[in-house]
Amino acid sequence: MTDEKKQLVLPGVLTVKELAGLMDIPVTTVIRQLLGSGVLATINDNLDFETAAVVADDLGFTATLEQSESELSADTNQYISDAEGEPRAPIVTVMGHVDHGKTSLLDYIRKTKVVEGESGGITQHMGAYQVDYKGRRITFLDTPGHEAFSTIRAQGAKVTDVAILVVAADDGIKPQTIEAIELARAAGVPLVVAITKIDKPEANVMRVEQELAAHNIVTEKWGGKDVVIGVSGKTGQGVDELLELVLLTADLQELKAPVEGPGEGVIIESKHDPKVGALATLLVQRGTLRVGDSFVAGNHFGKIKAMEDFTGKRIKQAGPSQPVRVTGFTAAPSAGERLMTVASDKVAHEIIAKLNKRATTRQFSARTSDLTRLTSQIRLARLHHINIVLKADVQGSLEAIKQQLDKIKTDKGQIRIVAEGLGNITESDVMSAAGENGFVVGFKVAVTPSARRTAKKDDIKILTYDIIYELTDDLTRILLDSIGPEKIETTVGRATVLKIFRDARSEKIVGMKVISGKVQRGNIVRFFDENKELVGEGEVKLIKRVAEEVTEANAGDDFGFQITTHAKITEGNVAEFIRVDYKKAGLK
C-alpha cells in the first residue's frame, strides 16, 4: 500500500526556489525534475502553476491552485438576491445580417415608442435607450449588433435578456444571421425572430421560415414552438406584436434586481471627449448609481462627476436596466468591463491595486501556460521549424515583425511565416496554420468568433500581442524550448576494472583503480573491452574507499563503485567517466 501524497497549495506563479521551499526539497532536485520534463530552469526562474503542479506530482505531492480572493466586492454591503429585488425592464439586443433592416426597425421603434414626452428631447446618440410599451419600459442596445454582443460577453458580462434576430424577407438567412443565432444560443439568451421588409414586393416569408427551420428555429405554423413576427421598419407593421412578444419572453424569466445598495453596471461603449475627458455609456444591473459616487471600472477608478440619460438630460441617480452616460473616468474603460461603486476614493485605490496584482499574475500564468503547452506539442511533433500564420494591423507593423523574426534562427531550426496578411484573424487563418502544423500570431488585431471556434475545435493556438518585443521574445522562447537544452559531455576520469563484487541485473558493485582525473557521484560511466568496443554504460550512485563512503575518487587509488547498469562488465574493462551538463539552446 503506497503512502498518500502530501497536499500542496501553490500560487499561480512562483519561482523554482519557492517551489522547493514549499516542498522542503533541495532546489537541485526540483531543477533535475524539471530538466527531465524538458524544462531548463534556474533557481530564480518563474514557473506557472501547471508546470509546478507536474513537478510536485512527480515528487510525491498533490498540488492545488491557491484560491485568489473571492470576487472583490465593491462594498462591504451585500445585495439582496435578484429574486428578492424589484421587477426591472428587459434589455434587448437586435442582431442579424447587415442591410437586413436592423437600423430601420430600431429607428421606427425609437421615433414612435420612446418614453412619452422625451422623443423630441433626444439630442445625442447613445449606445442604449428605453422605449415605453403599454406602460412598461424596454431597454434596447443600439450598438453594432452582435459585434458588441460578443465583445461584452467575452468579458464575462451577461447583459442581454432577449435577442431579436432580424432576417430580411427578400434575402433570407446569411452568414451573419447564422453567427447571430450561434452567439445567442451560446449565451443562453432567448431569441425572438423578426422577419423584416415584409412590405417589399419580393418578400418571401415562407422561404425564410424554411431556412430558419434548417437552423432549428421552427415556427408554430411549422409545428414548432418558436414565434416569428413579420415586421416593417417603414410602415410599422408588426412592431407592436414584436414588442408584445419581447415582453412575454421577458416575463417568463421573471427579471428582477435589487434597487438598494451600491451601484453596479456594465460598460456598453466608451470614448474620450476633448471637453470632459473619458466618458462611457453603461447599463445599470443592480443597486443605484449616484452622482458623486466613487467607483472601480476594470483596472481604472474614478468618481461620477455627471450622469445623463439617453435623452441627454442630467440626472442624479439611475437604477437597474437604465442606460446612462457617465463622466469621471481616469481612462476610457473597455466594453464589457464592470463598474462598481465603492465607499470612497481610498477603497477604490486599494481595490485597483489588488486587481492589478491579480491580473498581472493571471496574465503571466496564462501566457506561460500557453507557451509551455505549445512548446510541448512542437517537441512531440519533432518539428525542426516553427510555422506561423502572421496577421498585423498595418503593413508597417507586418514588415517590422518580419524583419525581427528573420533574426530568430538556430542551427536546428527557425521561425517560418507560412502565410501573412493584414486585418483580424479569421477562420481561414486558423485553417492555414492547421495545414502547416503551426499556429497563428496576431499583432494589434482581433480574433473573429468563427476563428476562435475553429481554433478550439482543431486545437490550434492563437497568440495575440500589442507590443512587438513581447511577440519576438515569446517566439524566441518557443523555438529554443522546443529544441530543448543542448547536452554537453565532458570526460572527467578513467579507471580499470579490478573486480566485480556484485553483479545484479541492474546494479553492480565494481572495484576499480582510477588512473586519471576525478570521479564524482552522478557521473555517467562507460565500459570498454580490450578492443575498445563499448560494453555498456551506467550511472555512479555511490563511491567507497575501503569501508568509508566518499564524494569523489581521485587518480592513483582503488575505489568501490555502486553503478546502475545492465552492462556485462568483466575484469580488465576500461571505464570512462563523463560529466553531463545542459546548456540552453541559443540563436545563431
UniProtKB/TrEMBL annotation:
Single annotated GO MF: GTPase activity
Positions in coiled-coil regions: none
Positions annotated to bind GTP: 96-103, 142-146, 196-199
Residue stretches making up the Tr-type G domain: 87-256
GO cellular component terms attached to this protein's record: cytosol
Keywords carried by this UniProt record: Cytoplasm, GTP-binding, Initiation factor, Nucleotide-binding, Protein biosynthesis
InterPro entries membership: EF-G-like_DII (IPR053905), IF2_II (IPR044145), IF2_N (IPR006847), P-loop_NTPase (IPR027417), Small_GTP-bd (IPR005225), T_Tr_GTP-bd_dom (IPR000795), TF_IF2_bacterial-like (IPR000178), TIF_IF2 (IPR015760)
Segments of this protein annotated with the region G-domain: 90-238
Location relative to the cell: Cytoplasm
Function: One of the essential components for the initiation of protein synthesis. Protects formylmethionyl-tRNA from spontaneous hydrolysis and promotes its binding to the 30S ribosomal subunits. Also involved in the hydrolysis of GTP during the formation of the 70S ribosomal complex.
Family: Belongs to the TRAFAC class translation factor GTPase superfamily. Classic translation factor GTPase family. IF-2 subfamily.
Protein name per its UniProtKB record: Translation initiation factor IF-2
Organism (species): candidate division Kazan bacterium RIFCSPLOWO2_01_FULL_45_19
Name of encoding gene: infB
